[in-house]
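A.,

Following up on our hallway conversation. C-alpha cells first:
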C-alpha cells in the first residue's frame, strides 16, 4: 500500500532536503528564507527557522551534535 501526503511546505522553491540519521525527521531549505523541520511519521511541521537574509540553499543535520542544524545561504 502506498500513501501520498500533500502539504504546502514553503512559499518558494525548496533547494535542499536532509534526513536526520535514524529518525523520521527531515529538514527543507527554501528560497523563502526559511528552514523547516518535519516529522514524517506524524505528518507535521515541527519548527520553522527564520531570520535568514537570503534564500537558504542547504540545510544539514550535524551528525556529531544531535539536534543541531547548519545552514548555508
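Then the amino acids I'd put at each of the 73 positions:
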Amino acid at each position: 500500500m502506498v500513501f501520498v501526503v500533500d502539504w504546502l511546505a514553503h512559499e518558494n522553491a525548496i533547494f535542499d532536503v536532509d534526513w536526520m540519521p535514524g529518525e523520521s525527521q527531515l529538514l527543507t531549505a527554501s528560497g523563502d528564507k526559511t528552514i523547516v523541520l518535519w516529522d514524517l511519521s506524524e505528518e507535521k511541521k515541527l519548527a520553522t527557522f527564520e531570520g535568514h537574509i537570503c534564500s537558504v540553499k542547504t540545510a544539514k543535520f550535524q551528525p556529531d551534535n544531535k539536534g543541531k542544524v547548519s545552514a548555508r545561504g
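The chain has a mean pLDDT of 84. Curious whether your intuition agrees with the design.

B.
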